[in-house]
Amino acid sequence: MKKKAPVWRNAVIIGVVLAALVGMLFWVNTLEPQKEETQTSTETPKFTAYKIDSENVSSFIIKSKGLEIMAKNLGDGKWSLNDVSPDELDSSKVSDLVTTVTTMISNYEIAKDSFVLSEYGLENPYITIDIANKDGSSDRLLIGDKSPTTGEYFFLKQGDSTVYSIYAYKVDTMLKHVSYYQSYNRFKVQTSDINEIILKRKNKPTIHLKLKDTTEQTSYNVWQMLEPYEGVQNAIDQFVDDKILTPIGEMTVSDPAPAGRKYGFEDPHSVLTLNVIPHNEDGSTGEPYTVVLTVGNTENGLTYVKLDDKVYTVSESSLDFMNTDEFLVVSKLQALSDIAVTEQVKVSYSEKQSVLDITHVDENTFSFKINGKDADEKLSKEMYQNIIALNVDGLYKNEALGLPEVTIFYKGYGTGEDTTVEFIPINELSYALRRNGKTQFTIKKSKVEEMLQKLENFEANPTK
Questions:
Q1: Which residues pair with 138 in a beta bridge?
Q2: Nearest to residue 63, comparing CAs of 145, 148, 130?
Q3: What are the distances in angstroms from CA 112 to CA 108, 127, 199, 433?
Q4: Quick check: 462 and 373 in contact, CB under 8 A?
Q5: N- or C-end of the chain: fewer Cβ atoms within 10 A?
Q6: What is the three-class DSSP state of 178?
Q7: Which residues of 131-146 are buried (b: 16+ CB within 10 A; e: fewer)?
Q8: Weakest mean pLDDT among 17-31, 341-355, 373-387, 402-416
């Protein structure tokens, strides 16, 4: 028979268990947060190895094998590098370099008071930085070997008693050639501010586009085409946006061209001129300005371009839009006339004549008559759309012409102008399209015949 444990022993055991539980709770609630705090504090840099206000620096020189960069403080936050003007440098990149040199933050003190320079690569340093201050004093900063344990570089300000380590990215920044700072986009044009595009091309027609004045907008489109066709033509807005403006907006002119090359600007491939009117957030406009980009020779996929009398290289493919076929730009709706500025459409063909009269009740309300008879508004608008939707198919090549077989006359209303469109047979398949006396395009006969058939059907049933 087993003996029962004394009551006092049970009480002792329970007390020990309770004490252990209390101790564990204390460790969880007290010690663990302290551990987290310690870990967090080690993530932030501990030491300022070197720091000086960049405004108090007059110049500094970075020297490494095969590299020397002289930076001069020109005031107002502007710096030159190797006598390259601030206007030819990327200011944000230069600012990063200045900050890198004037502020050295370290996570580690490597050696203090007593050390051998050669052990850290500081006797013959990897990089030497000589800083001249405006008060006449100077500092020399030494960067030695890369630490095999931290991946950082050993750093010492000459005359100090402590070796630190600095981040590798700082060394990478200081070893960049001046050309890195010269590489930034000079061609910064807000495409929404472009008012006019003139693209002169070698062995190709000039493309001249101009934005319509919105205060005089009487057409469906926004861009008009002044060249290469006779008279002012409508351009295809979507094409202009996608195939011309978008590539212009994506163009980067950043890399200076090497000297002594045959740039080809004496007989350029093309010259792009942009007239720009800046638009401010408050709706006002800024001072208009002009951007001219001259395109020269191409070597190994890089094309020489001249901007503001300086020469750069750009990728050949970025200029593909300059080879655009002008016929793709011009609107194919040569008979287009906005109903808001038209009061009559007269179609003459085969000794017949159909007259669609448009009465402007108010800005958005119209009534219609076809050959003097009342016509349904919806059906009339559909017929009007069928007439103006005739789109051309190609360019007229000076074929011999006779008399027109079909003529459409648009009588202007308000600010609208009279327009006459004639369809003159070239052969069995095509008409030459003559608009206000100018013949530049062709259209398939089948399109015109289909429109005439719809017109006859409408005449027969104008109200249903």
A1: 132
A2: 130
A3: 11, 21, 67, 90
A4: yes
A5: N
A6: helix
A7: bbeeeeeebebbbbee
A8: 17-31
Tell me the per-residue pLDDT of 76-125, one tens digit each, with 9 for 90 and over.
Answer: 999 999 999 998 898 999 999 999 999 999 989 999 988 999 999 999 99
Task: Single out the residue in 182, 215, 236 at which a domain terminates.
Answer: 182
CA distances from 207 to 267, 268, 326 (A): 18, 16, 7
pTM score: 0.66
Residues 6 or more apart whose CB falls under 8 angstroms from that of 292 comprise 271, 272, 273, 274, 307
Q: Is residue 273 assigned to a domain? A: yes
* Three-state secondary structure call for residue 73: strand
- Tell me, yes or no, whether 201 and 148 share the same domain: no
Residue 5 lies in a domain: no
The CATH number of residue 250's host domain is 2.60.40
Neighbours of 422 (CB within 10 A): 21
Cα separation, 387 vs 349, in Å, equals 14
462 prior amide bond cis, ω within 30: no
| Residue 13: predicted pLDDT | 42
For residue 30, is it within any domain? Answer: no
- Token pair of 194 as six digits: 């472009």
394 shares its domain with 440: yes
Residue type at position 339:
I
CA-based nearest residue to 152, from 109, 102, 214, 199: 109
Regarding whether 222 and 126 lie in a shared domain, the answer is no
Residues 175 and 224 in one domain: no
Which residues neighbour 97 within 8 Å (Cβ) at sequence distance 6 or greater?
71, 81, 173, 174, 176, 181
User: H-helix or E-strand containing 386?
Assistant: helix 377-388
Domain region containing 316: 191-329
Separation between Cα atoms, residue 345 and residue 413, nearest integer Å: 11
Number of domains in the chain: 3
Q: Are residues 103 and 178 in the same domain?
A: yes
Residue 75 has pLDDT above 60, yes or no: yes
- Of the three residues 273, 297, 329, the one that is the final residue of a domain is 329
Contact 114, 100 (CB under 8 A): no
Q: Which residues pair with 198 in a beta bridge?
A: 208, 273
Question: Quick one: 163 and 206 in the same domain?
Answer: no
Comparing C-alpha atoms, which of 209, 52, 247 is closest to residue 140?
52
